[in-house]
């Protein structure tokens, strides 16, 4: 009786070596090591020839072809000097000052029918001040001066600026002061508002100190994000009421801004909606030279997913009440393309409504500037090469990248055009047997389940009833 009760556990114990063998059989193969001959593409990195001694950080800008032919997230990028691997870090352009600061309003009042006030500025360089004004349908002139202290006897004039709000004319408003880069701790503003033509407001109702609600200081223009132009076209077509530009976008290339340029000399005023749509092109791989096992874009080849975003472009050029008004916003931020593993057709459509089409000179696809940076002091006399195109590699882990602090003035290197690696040798397929034959996994698992079920059934028959 005791022996019969113990037998089921003995059967299960006998199955443990089988399960352990299966785990060893299905375990993943170790990731391969990087080697120059296994990369499909290479580019020479040219360091500045004007520098006699190469020291410190050196950076080169990455372009669209790197994203198309490298692995996702650029994890297979490697730099070699001869056979020596050079550590690197990749940077993404972003504002040096991440946040907008507040400017404290002091001594707010009126003088000779104008609104006057001082601004206590943040302790950093700045190139603009955005005023929050609780007023509509006006045209204003702002005289701005800077000083090291409040009520300085001889402040430095920073210019005269036109502010406006033309919402009743379905245009726009601008209440920002575009300054040359300055660092004065205090600004003095003399603001005079006049009603926009055709409105019922009066100068008295507008020039009230209480309309000045706040002031903010955005990041300096010199600290703004840099962009790289990926493609541009001047071949626009008219489709009904839309002006359409079409691009063929390679796989995995991030499109982060659409920029428009107008024909030289055009000074019209407009506000037009823009629709951006990217739709994948089924059947076209990110790299035709890769086979389906190493190219992630070959998965789900029938995909028809689309990404869409919208925005508005505007331009205001008018002369109102003797003042020239000028404002343009001809860029649209977007986030499209980076997650697409296929080539895509991207269409940029400007909705004209009942107005005449705009004289668009070019439409540009842009991404935030990416740089690959390395220590120039580690470079030997061997040519410096950037390699990519080995999808089996994992991302490298360098101390240099962990401790990297971007320099404000790195040495600027350049990349030569992409070319095929003349020493390229395909890797042998080192994937586990189960990855090459995934159907066997289900067959073996089904067999194990059947064996365990049979063992349990035979053991149950021998238990006393």
From TrEMBL:
Pfam families: DUF3999 (PF13163). The chain crosses the membrane at residues 440-457. Residues 279-320 are annotated as: Disordered. Residues 286-296 have a biased composition (Low complexity). Keywords: Cell projection, Cilium, Flagellum, Membrane, Transmembrane, Transmembrane helix. It comes from the Bacteria. This is Anti-sigma28 factor (Negative regulator of flagellin synthesis). It comes from Granulicella aggregans.
């Amino acid at each position: 009786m005791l022996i019969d009760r113990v037998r089921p556990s003995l059967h299960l114990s006998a199955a443990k070596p089988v399960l352990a063998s299966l785990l060893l059989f299905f375990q993943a193969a170790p990731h391969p090591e990087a080697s120059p001959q296994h990369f499909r593409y290479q580019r020479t990195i040219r360091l500045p020839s004007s520098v006699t001694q190469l020291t410190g950080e050196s950076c080169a800008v990455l372009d669209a072809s790197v994203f198309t032919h490298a692995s996702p997230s650029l994890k297979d990028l490697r730099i070699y000097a001869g056979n020596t691997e050079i550590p690197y870090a990749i940077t993404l352009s972003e504002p040096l000052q991440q946040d907008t600061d507040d400017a404290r309003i002091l001594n707010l009042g009126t003088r000779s029918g104008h609104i006057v006030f001082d601004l206590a500025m943040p302790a950093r360089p700045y190139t603009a001040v955005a005023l929050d004004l609780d007023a509509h349908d006006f045209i204003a002139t702002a005289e701005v001066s800077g000083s090291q202290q409040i009520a300085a006897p001889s402040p430095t004039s920073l210019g005269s600026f036109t502010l406006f709000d033309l919402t009743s004319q379905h245009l726009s408003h601008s209440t920002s002061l575009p300054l040359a880069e300055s660092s004065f701790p205090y600004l003095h503003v003399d603001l005079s508002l006049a009603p926009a033509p055709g409105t019922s407001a009066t100068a008295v109702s507008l020039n009230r100190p209480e309309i000045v609600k706040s002031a903010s200081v955005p990041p300096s223009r010199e600290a703004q994000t840099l962009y790289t132009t990926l493609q541009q076209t001047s071949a626009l077509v008219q489709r009904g009421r839309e002006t359409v530009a079409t691009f063929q976008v390679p796989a995995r290339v991030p499109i982060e801004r659409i920029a428009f340029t107008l024909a030289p000399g055009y000074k019209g005023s407009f506000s037009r909606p823009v629709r951006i749509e990217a739709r994948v092109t089924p059947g076209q791989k990110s790299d035709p030279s890769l086979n389906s096992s190493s190219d992630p874009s070959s998965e789900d080849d029938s995909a028809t997913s689309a990404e869409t975003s919208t925005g508005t472009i505007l331009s205001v050029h008018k002369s109102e009440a003797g003042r020239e008004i000028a404002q343009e916003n001809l860029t649209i931020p977007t986030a499209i393309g980076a997650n697409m593993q296929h080539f895509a057709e991207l269409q940029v459509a400007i909705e004209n409504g009942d107005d005449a089409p705009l004289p668009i000179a070019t439409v540009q696809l842009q991404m935030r500037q990416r740089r690959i940076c390395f220590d120039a002091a580690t470079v030997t006399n061997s040519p410096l090469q950037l390699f990519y195109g080995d999808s089996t590699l994992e991302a490298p882990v360098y101390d240099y990248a962990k401790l990297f602090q971007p320099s404000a003035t790195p040495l600027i290197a350049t990349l030569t055009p992409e070319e095929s690696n003349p020493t390229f040798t395909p890797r042998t397929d080192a994937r586990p047997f189960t990855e090459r034959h995934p159907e066997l996994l289900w067959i073996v698992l089904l067999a194990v389940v059947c064996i365990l079920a049979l063992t349990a059934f035979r053991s149950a028959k021998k238990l006393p009833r």
